[in-house]
Each structure stands twice: as structure tokens, then as C-alpha cells.
Amino acid sequence: MLITRKHAICIFFNEEFTKENSERLKEDLEKLCGLEICYADDPNKPMLQTKLKVNGFPSYYHRYKDDLPKSTSLQEQIILSK
Q: Which domain of life is it from (predicted)?
């Protein structure tokens, strides 16, 4: 399962993943100047780290995607491949 940034923020703060919670917690995280939600090995274990450190060690600290990729239907794939 792909975990988005909003989902990771809810996991980190032990909140249920809802649109309202994710927006509120995203705002709370932005108030913590200089911190970023990221993960090292397991995307299911989000952590807070300084943006400086995340940028300095991109092979160790990984950022979450903002949104899930849009899935294309089989019909769309067939049309696009013609």
C-alpha cells in the first residue's frame, strides 16, 4: 500500500485518517518550523526530521508523495496505446 504524506502525518500523530484530521495535522506540522515528515526504511513508520537533514541525506531519509497516482482504467490504457 502506498502511503501519502497526509496519511503518514495521521499515522505519526496517532489520529484516524480523515480529510479533516489530515488537513488539521498538516497545518500543525507546518507550525513546527524546519521539520519534515519522512521515513528511513519503512513507510509505515513515519518520523519527523529537520528539512536540512532530509535534504542532506536523501539516500537515507525519504519523503512521502503528496497524493496517490491516478489509476487509469483498462479502457483508457487501450485507447492510449493505439
A: Eukaryota
72 CB-near residues (< 8 Å, 6+ apart) = 80
Percent of the chain residues past pLDDT 70, beyond the cut:
82
Helical pair 5-12 and 19-31, crossing angle rounded to 10 deg: 80
Residues 6+ apart with CB under 8 A from 46: 3, 8, 9, 11, 12, 37, 38, 39, 64
Neighbours of 53 (CB within 10 A): 14
Look up residue 16 and give its DSSP letter: -
**pLDDT value of residue 73:** 52
pLDDT at 2 over 70: yes
